[in-house]
Amino acid sequence: MSGISRRRFLAGSIAGCAATTLCGSKMALAAGSFAGYPEGMGVLVDLTRCIGCRSCEAACNKEQNLPAPAKPFDDLSVFDETFHGGTQKRRPDETAYTVVNRYQPEGGGKPIYRKVQCNHCAEPACLTSCFVNAYTKTQEGAVVYNDKVCVGCRTCMVACPFNVPAFKYSSAFDAKIMKCIFCHETRLKHGRPPACVEICPQQALTFGKRSDLIKIAYQRMQNEPGRYVDHLYGEKELGGTSWMYLSAVPFEQVGFDVTVQNEPILNNVKDFLSTVPMVLAIWPALFTGFHLLATKKDGHGHDNDHAGDSSTAHGEEEDKP
Amino acid sequence: MKPMLSLYIFGMVLSGLLCVTGSVAAAPTGGPGQVRIDRLANLFDGVDFDHAAHVEIAGDCATCHHHTTGDGTGGERCGRCHAQSPKSANVACHACHETDPFTAAHLERKAGDRYQYHVDKPGLKAAYHWNCLGCHEDSGGPTGCEDCHGRNATGEAFYHSGTFAPKAASSTSHH
Predict the structure, then answer these.
(1) Which CATH number fits domain B26-164: 3.30.530.20, 3.90.226.10, 3.20.20.10, 3.90.10.10?
(2) CB–CB of A129/A159 below 8 Å?
(3) Searching chain B, which residue's CA lies closest to the CA of residue A214?
């Protein structure tokens, strides 16, 4: 018997595996992060300015050729609608890419109105969950959707932390995801603001480069400190979103999820997944090496010395009836 | 008699002149009586704005025209720079507030001007609504959309309202 004892072999292989795994995670951190295209546009939504006129809903409906609504857009009774046993307010669906909801702040006072639409994240969860690449984060900042490649699995609906993508269940043959596309085809590509921004009579929506909007938001907070809560929602949330919000009251009181992480959803799996190619390449070679080492004393095929072996793996295999 | 008469006439003319000049310098007056505001008329008709009445109500030009009329400013924050600002060539709202504040050209111009302070200036539509509605809410003036500008047929169609309202009120909306 030459070579390694069982104890040394086990110790060596465990140490080897540990080293490989640790070495592997360091390589995985080379998988980069994305802070958004530098020329990406965005919209700053100032909830202290919105008066709940719903002109943005009407403008979006017209711009995107959406079906006629159930109620006129100047009908404010929609703010009283609730769903799922009174637990939820209106949300974007296959007939409306954006809705405005009304909230009553806890301290009393005037109601607060909040516009809901796709936030066009820098590293969207919908995009990273889609295995057919139906979503694209464009240079202008919009997250757009290609219904030609979509297979209708609706994983993006599960992935989106804001529950924005809506499925067109009403159609059997034209089913697809429907969501705000930042008016990319009709306006953003041509350097124009989206329809909702243009129509807003209060300029609650401010359009510009995302980096400039962050500066404007902080300037507003500095100029009128009593007017805003000291937070720009969407600046860091989920790796940053193109649509960001300023509010007079804490964000959880106006329907925002303040528990979302500041990292993109992708980061929860990125490091683990990026080790897969390396694992698939290295482990077969590594374990073949271990196997050869372990069976080395049998002379496995090199000198055909089976006569002297009695209790080796090689010998046992051949002895099997 | 004749010298007295000419003196009398001279006195009347002089006091008449003084009255005229006196009334111009005394209280904030001037400016147009009625203004037609319809630069942005599209879904709504233009506004027939009673400027003279608002001059009476506001009392101070700076209330609406910020610091452009040469009468000082309405606020401490503006006064830091504009307390002594002279009268601008054009004090109309549209002279400073863009009709289209978000065009690529306008955004580029803003980005290129490193020293402009007013980077968050509202567009013309927002300027009208903030300036007017802010005061109207405090003072009990008109605050409804159609109180100031009536909605035309284009607007009705846009909002799917009035004669364009959906016929059957279907209350089911699927999520």
Answers:
(1) 3.90.10.10
(2) yes
(3) B120
Q: What are the residue ranges spanned by the domains of chain B?
A: 26-164
Instruction: For residue B105, give the chain A residue with the closest CA.
Output: A191
The DSSP H or E segment spanning A166 is: strand A166-167
Q: Which residue from A73, A208, A223 is facing B159, i.e. has the nearest CB? A: A73
Alpha-carbon distances of A288 from A143, A292, A293, B46, B151, rounded to whole Å: 46, 6, 9, 83, 80
pLDDT tens readout for residues B1-17: 566 777 767 657 665 55
Give B105→chain A minimum CA distance, Å: 9
This complex has an ipTM of 0.79
Dig out the tokens for A67 from the structure: 């079906």
Q: Hey, what domains does chain A have and what are their CATH numbers? A: 41-270 (3.30.70.20)
Give A263-298 pLDDT, tens digit per residue.
Answer: 999 999 888 888 999 999 999 999 999 999 999 887
Q: For residue B126, give the nearest of A55, A70, A202 by CB distance.
A: A202
Task: Measure the CA–CA gap between A75 and B31, rounded to whole angstroms.
Answer: 39
Q: Is B54 helix (H, G, I), strand (E, B) or coil?
A: helix
Span between the terminal Cα atoms of chain B, in Å: 99
Q: Which of A49, A74, A220 best probes binding to B when mutated, by most B CB atoms within 10 angstroms?
A: A74
What tokens appear for A151 in the block?
A: 């297979």
- Placement of tokens 């979103």 in the chain: A241
Rounded Cα gap, residues A96 and A59, in angstroms: 11
Rg (alpha carbons) of chain A, rounded to whole number: 29
Q: Are B152 and B43 in contact (CB under 8 A)?
A: yes
